[in-house]
Structures are given as C-alpha cells and as structure tokens.
Amino acid sequence: MLLHLSDLHFGTERQECIQAIQTFCQEQRPEVVVVSGDLTQRAKFKEFLACRQFLDGLKIPYFVVPGNHDIPLYQLWNRVFSPFGLYQLFFGSLENTLVTEHFYLIGMNSIRRRYHTRGHISLEQIQHVDEILQKAPQNKLKIIVSHQPFYTSNENHHLKDCPSLGKFAIKEWGQHQLYALLHGHLHLVAVYDLNQEFELDLQQPVYEVHAGTAISKRLHKNMPNSFNVIHCDGSFEHYFFDEMRQVFVPKK
Ligand SMILES: [Fe+2]
C-alpha cells in the first residue's frame, strides 16, 4: 500500500489530523508515504523542521517533492538566489526515484521561482523521465509525483496552474507503462484517466490522482482533510477526516 499525502502546509497544521495519520500508519504499515508538495505554508525553517520530524516519526520510507509554498514568497533575496535552499537542507535532492516492493516512484520538480502558483515542466525533464521509465523494472507500478496537476475538469480558474507541456509529456510517458501521476495543489480529491481526457489513443489508462490537504486548516470550500491510498493492485481509495471520531475513514 502507498499512502499519498499532500499539501501538509506545516505552519497551519491540525494536530488531530497528524495524530490520526500516525495511528493509520501504525495500523496499516504502508510501504511508502508520498507527499506531493506544499510541505510548508511559508517555507520557514521551523515549518520544514516540523515536517521533517513528522515524516521521520512515521518510521516508514517517505518520498517528497516541492510545492509552490516551499520556496520563499516574501524574502526576495532568497527567492531569487536560493529558492530551494531550506527544502534541500531538510529533504535533499529536488528529484529522486525510489523503488519499493510494488511501486517505482519518480519525483519531478514543477516549481519555478518566477511563478507564484503555476506549474512548469521542461522538455529536458520530459526526456529525462522518459529515459527513467524505459529502464524501470517491468513488475512495478510506475508513478510520477509532482505538485501541480496536469489536468483539472471543473475548476477552470486553476487550469492556468497546469504545466503547459503536460499533454505532450503524457503522450510520451504513456508509451512506457506510466501507471499514474500523484499531485496536490488544488486541495481537491479526484482521479482522471489522462488517456481519455487528453484523447491520446494510448494502449492503457494513465491515471491522474489529486489529493486534498491531509492536515492543514487551509481547506477548500470546507472540504474535509483527506488522503489517498494506492493499493498493490493499483486500485485507489480516498480517506476523509471524520471530525466526530477524529480518524480518517475511507469513502464508501
Ligand atoms: Fe500548491
């Protein structure tokens, strides 16, 4: 099982959600925890530290990518000259790969200092990920993790945040058994098949999985806190925070 968290926004975290995730991990023991960006609210040292301590405390391998909140917004000097300085201090490289029992994870940095919220991927990144996919083990579910979604159906004002080369990238990666992409950013829960949405005529679906915010008070239109689970057979499950019981429960 893979646990997909997103948009933790440490600095605005809810302790009751943190505890519920700790309990979930102790009981379910996912093989990996993925966080698809926005680890912090304002890219502050103490926020990165709190996030790192939270993830280390789960005692489960974790895999993170940066979000647009993870580079400084107001400290212009740092934004220009060292936008990822604190992120890298706490989490190392911006783009990693990780192999687990059932999954092959590829992290992709879609954050650029010149954009406030918009996602960007380059031709070089597309080609690099394509090469990784071609060499990846055949028996794993191949999954790309990046912050901004490549597609959104109904929130049209967010379309501008999707990377402009997203459709082109899926057309390439979809030919090399890419199974799914995990994103955050919109604080909304959704699953799409990009083969259908982009009308690509690939041999198999390419799933686009959006996660809500797992622990932040910054909820979209009072949507509950949530996370996703990807099972070893590739099926998806969405969990929502139950305020009465103070636990995450799967959506029926
Ligand atoms: Fe974001």
UniProtKB/TrEMBL annotation:
Molecular-function annotations in GO: hydrolase activity; metal ion binding
UniProt-listed SUPFAM superfamilies: Metallo-dependent phosphatases
Broad class of enzyme this protein falls into: hydrolase
UniProtKB keywords: Hydrolase, Iron, Metal-binding
Positions of the Calcineurin-like phosphoesterase domain: 2-187
E.C. number(s) listed in UniProt: 3.1.-.-
Superkingdom: Bacteria
A Pfam family matched in the record: Metallophos
Family to which the UniProt record says this protein belongs: Belongs to the cyclic nucleotide phosphodiesterase class-III family.
Protein name per its UniProtKB record: 3',5'-cyclic-nucleotide phosphodiesterase
Taxonomy of the source species: Bacteria, Pseudomonadati, Pseudomonadota, Gammaproteobacteria, Moraxellales
